[in-house]
Write a structure and sequence with these properties.
This protein is an all-alpha fold and 318 residues long. 72% of the residues lie in helices and 0% in strands. The chain is globular, with a radius of gyration of 19 Å. 47% of the residues are buried.
Amino acid sequence: MIAIGIFLAISASAVGTFSKQMIARSEYLHKRWMFHVGAGMNLFVGPPVDASAYAFAPQVIIAPFACLDLVFNAITAPYTLSWQQEKLTRWHIIGTVLVTVGAACTSIFADTTEVIYNVTELEAQLFFRPTSIAYYLCELAAILFTITAMNSSWFNPKMRGISLGVVAGVLMGNVFLMKGLLGLIHITVSTRNFDAWARPTPYILLAGACICAIFGHVFMRRGLGEYKGIFMVTIYGGAHISAGCLSGCVVLEEMAGAEWFRYVLYWCSVALIIVGTGVINLVTEDSRMVAENLNQGQEGAPLDEGHISLEIPTTRKA
């Protein structure tokens, strides 16, 4: 069953890479249909495939495989997003290898048993544990601070790009919401007991998962419109993996029974992924794109660094 989850996670990463590159191309070519194809895949194809992976394996095993999005993008972006003039260097390859090895090691060192919570157990785990509540509050405070900092122009352009990618990755890394919902669906199908659906919990989880996906997409779309694909997807991937692994350990307590050395090796593997993403990011030159690059040499000025809107931006017609 875990192998099926890993296969679905790999498939979700491939879909995610394609969809983000379509969004980036739509910004460059000003093709509305490309944006809609990319956004549709990013919102309605990738997340269900990714969520299905969590139905077959623990979150702490599946979450690190989001790094494959970085691998696929680092390899293909120099060719599919060629106008960004990004080159595949040996440092990209080294970073990609580090990310891949780290992801493989997390699945080896993660010592967890898949637990499917019923509705009352899930409510106790997600809504009433002080640790879970503290996690939500810390995440919300960090996101609000980052948005405020960007809207107040406290960050320089590169820090702004990092912030856009981190917020998108953290929001879309809250996969415990969808995992909990899938667990309730699994129990309902196997027992034919629909009592859970008379409670608000399934709908809260569904609403939370949708809100995180939509707003994460908003920030990712804005970032891809201003920064190069390898840079943005690298930052996004590192934040997504970190949030997924951390919430799996803190909120769902999936590694609560692991021996200390496996716990240490697991987080060393996650750190290896983050180091790999850092290597890829450091060798990505001129991460920020200006309007004249996007408009193929037409007269323009640097892209707006103004306020972050929580509404999905519209694209111009061709």
